[in-house]
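Summary for the steering committee. One of the milestones for this cycle was to obtain a three-dimensional model of the protein with fe (ii) ion bound, which we needed before selecting residues for the alanine scan. The sequence and ligand used are listed below.
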Amino acid sequence: IQPSLRRSPSSSSSLIMRGGFTKKQSGPARPQKAKKRLTPTSSPDALLRDRHMAAVRDAISSQVPGLLDSLDSRGFAVCDNFLPPDTVLEMLKEADSLRTRQKMVASQSSRWNETLGKVERYEKRNVLSTNIVGGESYFDAPRLTEYCVTLVSSIPALVNARFPDVSLCERLHTNKLAVCLGDGSYYDKHYDNSGGGDLRKLTAILYLQDNWTPARAGHLRMFLPSSTNASVDAELPYVDIEPLGGRLVLFWSDIMVHSVCESFAFSEADHRWALTVWLHTTDASLIKFDDRMEARHFPDLGASALGLEG
Ligand SMILES: O=C(O)CCC(=O)C(=O)O
Ligand SMILES: [Fe+2]
């Protein structure tokens, strides 16, 4: 069975970018050179860049090791105040300026169309997104770009040391900055890894919205891997995670089913912002497919795919 047929809807992130940038481009240095550049220079831009990357690196080295136990036992981990509030606010301002400058587009996803018998693309209602690409676009969103680059250069070593069957790549990643504009916007249940050669292995989401309140809702609903002896009809257990600004959520892209609950915005300040970085594995054979979980969460899809392929 083609895994790609069995994964729907999946989140979209077609663009693969390198962790670092080439010399010609104006973004931050390649990871291995970043240290050298931390020495103060006279350029205010370079100082801001180095300070921000150092803050993200510090957050990773101090927080991520403590998240690995939870990642191991539950498939996901949550870290509050991953970055200092003023850093998150700076990133939020940058993100919102991408929105107001109309650099974000209607976010797409894919789902199984039973009638057509194929996976179809569709626009998520009231959700805009963009990819952070660096290079010439670095100055559109310098702090967001530096955040993505630093994650991909610093997280893999920590995760790989703990999980030998993960092999995260320190160079390639995909990312997405997304904003839910409210009015009940939501994401259907999905796996991030959409199969068919998708190398995404670890999802890291940083929420940016300020002063979240329960009325805004928009929880990330994380379905828990069920025990092997649970009956097929048993309730699917889940945890609802509030999208609090500064909160980092890590989970396995290939095995964790999740959705985003309806969110509401009473003003533009209430928009729900998420910056997602997907870390890739270097070895496609390490992507896991749990047929049982897929059948339980997507029974129609599983039957269709089986029918098609069989
Ligand atoms: O924003 C979130 O909480 C999750 C988003 C998500 O599931 C995705 O982009 O694939
Ligand atoms: Fe997702």
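Key point for the committee: Helices lie at 31-37, 44-63, 68-74, 85-100, 142-162, 291-297, 299-309.
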